[in-house]
Amino acid sequence: MTAHDGSGALYPELGIPGLLRLARRPYRNAVAAALAEAGFDDVPRNGAYLLARVHDGRYAVAELTRGLGISKQAVSQLVDTMVTRGYIERKPDAEDRRRMQLTLTPRGAAAATLSWQAATQVDEELERRLSAAGVAALRSGLIVLSDMGEDDPAHPDPEAD
Predict the structure, then answer these.
(1) Is 17 exposed, middle or buried (0-12, 13-18, 19+ CB in 10 A)?
(2) How far apart, in whole angstroms, are the C-alpha atoms of residue 46 and residue 35?
(3) For the segment 20-63, what is each residue's pLDDT rounded down to a tens digit?
């Protein structure tokens, strides 16, 4: 693999799947560094994603398994870890006692805010390097690609049973 040499020749032989994997690194690194610097060095892998989904109220197990690409059991273990470490509270849902309601603790809210700020800084750097129109085009392409994954009959939603 050819590394970026500053000339604009970014990984010419790498396909889109490889580029997508590499493109996550600036976000992952920025979020991990911000959390560690603030003393939240015990947030596990995928923990920042869970904090964001709990913050915005989109934490249904089906959505988390899709978003993280992990099993229901792994999502449950991640939630357990985040509860144990004081980032998330879990309470029975008032309307359906079989379901759990997740909320951020003050510690979790602080970590979620830091994660969001770090990701926003990466977005801002991307726009400086690419332009607002370039970012909009990239975003549109990623949305279309995401939608294609949702419509793939060869890989049905494992939660649709």
Answers:
(1) exposed
(2) 13
(3) 889 999 999 999 999 999 999 999 999 999 999 999 988 888 88
Query: Residue 39: which of 104, 85, 5, 71 has the closest Cα?
Result: 85
The pTM of the full predicted model, rounded to 2 decimals, is 0.80
Answer whether 64's CB lies under 8 Å from 75's CB. Answer: yes
Q: Tell me the two tokens of residue 83.
A: 């509860």
User: What whole-number distance in Å separates Cα of residue 4 and Cα of residue 20?
Assistant: 15
Tens digit of pLDDT for each residue in 10-24? 666 788 888 888 999
Q: Which residue has the tokens 């693999």?
A: 1
With contact defined as beta carbons under 8 Å apart, do 88 and 104 qualify?
Answer: yes
The identity of residue 99, as a single letter, is: R
Give all domains of the chain, ordered by start, each with its CATH number: 16-148 (1.10.10.10)
* Tokens matching residue 24: 């996550």
DSSP 71-136: -HHHHHHHHHHHHHTTSEEEEE-SS-TTSEEEEE-HHHHHHHHHHHHHHHHHHHHHHHHH-HHHHH
Tokens of 55: 């913050």
Tell me how far apart the alpha carbons of residues 99 and 80 are, in angstroms, rounded to a whole number. Answer: 15
Residues 159, 71: Cα–Cα separation, whole Å: 10
